């Protein structure tokens, strides 16, 4: 048989078990619960006594228990008043209930003042074991019912330091497109640090980007919350007002922004794609290279590597050789490419703005023979009218946007192209690249990520209007050489975050970093 004490504890826990303090820290609540039936019984007894003294004798049993007092206080006893024919109530309360209730109520204040909160939400340590995707929640009984004021405040991690390297990587062969040539590519690598956690970002641009980061941007980044990446991006944007946001300033800002997103995801122990919110697991890519300096053997080797070894079903070559003055060779190389890749693979061409509008329109008609699906920068990206004219006359999709640094630039270009391009290493990092994707979607356009595929991969998995990413030969070679954690394009698709590695999963190899860090002031030519 259950004792009143056991029943009291059980019922109190049923009522107050969701509270996020230990039950022993709330003796007053048990006291109130114990005393309440006695109080209610007293009130009703008074009312009953008033009624009983006017009643005739009753044949009911002398005990008249009240249903609300079950087990919590003893029922009243009624006895006849001799010679009157009436009864009177005897206030015979259960002394245990009253004493226990008063004793526990006495401890109520002590429970409130001195009982520590034991429930908390503890952010998972980035370096901890396992792959928990959410902060660990610890409570006494019911974690789903945690009150906001029961959450322990934890300090927000801040950006403690920025470190910058300028790296030079010679090409594996001379490279050129329609309007530029180069034999080396420069990377500016940024490390953002918060305590012992590091995030990495980079851009392919002039070495002067490093000075912009250290001289103009660092003071607006260090000390800020490592979680507020868009806010830091805006602070950097404002810091470049007089120095210039487009151009080198945009490259520098982008590298820092990418590093900050990587840092935030690592602090939260999440793949960057999961932090941003996935739309898709796979990210389509196309093989890109086919430089105008390649001979037929070099071109065939590269194309077969993409289509046969990696099974990438779409490839792009450079045309517009020598500012569009070698149309005959452009057409020869397109014909060779189609023969090598076969009829099923998609064929793209990139003129890098080498043609005039009339020239591009004329050539676009000959491209139909080779089923060219993508005509990138047929004219200069600054010639929006020319882009619109080529788009109207071409069966291939016209694409441009890789030199965009601001959203107004993309907004002006959107009506003139079939697919908008954006480069996160130039336009403002992942923060602005995602905004460019939304802008493109508002115009009914897809977005294609330009170059630097490992920068874009995670962000690309989060947008619904992604066309593809550029698996650019030069940047793929550099990123595979410098970083651990690179992605595999086999099948024509990347799967960012599939291994659960936090951030964008890229970690520099120290020996390669040291070997390619610039030591002289001379700056080699830099590729796209």
Automatic annotation (TrEMBL):
Chain coiled-coil ranges: none
Cofactor section: Mg(2+)
Domain Mandelate racemase/muconate lactonizing enzyme C-terminal residues, every copy: 296-397
Keyword match Metal-binding: yes
Record's keyword terms, sorted: Magnesium, Metal-binding
Official protein name in the record: Mandelate racemase/muconate lactonizing enzyme C-terminal domain-containing protein
């Amino acid at each position: 048989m259950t004792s009143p004490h056991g029943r009291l504890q059980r019922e109190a826990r049923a009522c107050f078990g969701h509270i996020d303090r230990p039950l022993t820290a709330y003796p007053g609540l048990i006291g109130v619960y114990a005393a309440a039936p006695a109080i209610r019984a007293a009130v009703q007894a008074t009312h009953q006594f008033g009624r009983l003294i006017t009643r005739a004798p009753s044949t009911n049993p002398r005990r008249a228990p009240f249903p609300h007092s079950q087990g919590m206080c003893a029922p009243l006893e009624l006895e006849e008043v001799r010679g009157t024919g009436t009864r009177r109530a005897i206030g015979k309360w259960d002394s245990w209930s009253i004493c226990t209730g008063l004793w526990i109520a006495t401890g109520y204040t002590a429970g409130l003042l001195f009982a520590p909160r034991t429930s908390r939400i503890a952010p998972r340590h980035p370096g901890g074991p396992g792959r928990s995707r959410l902060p660990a929640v610890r409570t006494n009984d019911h974690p789903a019912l945690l009150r906001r004021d029961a959450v322990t405040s934890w300090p927000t991690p801040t950006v403690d330091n920025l470190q910058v390297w300028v790296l030079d990587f010679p090409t594996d062969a001379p490279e050129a497109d329609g309007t530029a040539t180069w034999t080396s590519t420069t990377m500016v690598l940024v490390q953002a640090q918060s305590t012992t956690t590091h995030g990495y970002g980079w851009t392919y641009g002039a070495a002067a980007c490093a000075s912009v980061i250290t001289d103009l941007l660092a003071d607006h980044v260090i000390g800020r919350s490592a979680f507020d990446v868009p806010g830091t991006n805006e602070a950097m944007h404002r810091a470049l007002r007089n120095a210039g946001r487009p151009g080198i300033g945009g490259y520098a800002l982008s590298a820092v922004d990418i590093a900050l997103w990587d840092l935030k995801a690592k602090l939260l122990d999440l793949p960057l794609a999961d932090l941003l919110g996935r739309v898709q697991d796979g990210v389509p890519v196309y093989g890109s290279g086919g430089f105008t300096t390649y001979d037929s053997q070099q071109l065939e080797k590269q194309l077969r590597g993409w289509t046969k070894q990696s099974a990438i079903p779409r490839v792009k070559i450079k045309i517009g050789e020598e500012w569009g003055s070698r149309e005959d060779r452009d057409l020869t190389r397109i014909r060779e490419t189609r023969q090598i890749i076969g009829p099923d693979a998609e064929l793209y061409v990139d003129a890098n703005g080498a043609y005039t509008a009339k020239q591009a329109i004329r050539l676009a008609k000959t491209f139909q023979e080779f089923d060219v699906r993508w005509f990138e920068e047929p004219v200069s990206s600054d010639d929006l009218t020319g882009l619109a004219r080529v788009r109207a006359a071409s069966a291939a999709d016209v694409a441009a946007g890789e030199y965009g640094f601001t959203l107004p630039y993309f907004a002006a270009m959107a009506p003139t192209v079939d697919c908008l391009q954006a480069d996160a290493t130039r336009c403002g990092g992942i923060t602005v690249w995602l905004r460019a994707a939304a802008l493109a979607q508002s115009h009914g356009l897809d977005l294609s990520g330009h170059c630097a595929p490992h920068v874009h991969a995670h962000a690309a998995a989060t947008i619904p209007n992604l066309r593809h990413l550029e698996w650019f030969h030069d940047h793929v070679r550099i990123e595979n050489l410098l970083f651990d954690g690179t992605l595999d394009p086999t099948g024509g698709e990347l799967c960012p975050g599939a291994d659960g590695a936090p951030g964008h999963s890229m970690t520099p190899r120290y020996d390669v970093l040291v070997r390619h860090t610039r030591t002289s002031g001379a700056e080699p030519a830099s590729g796209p």
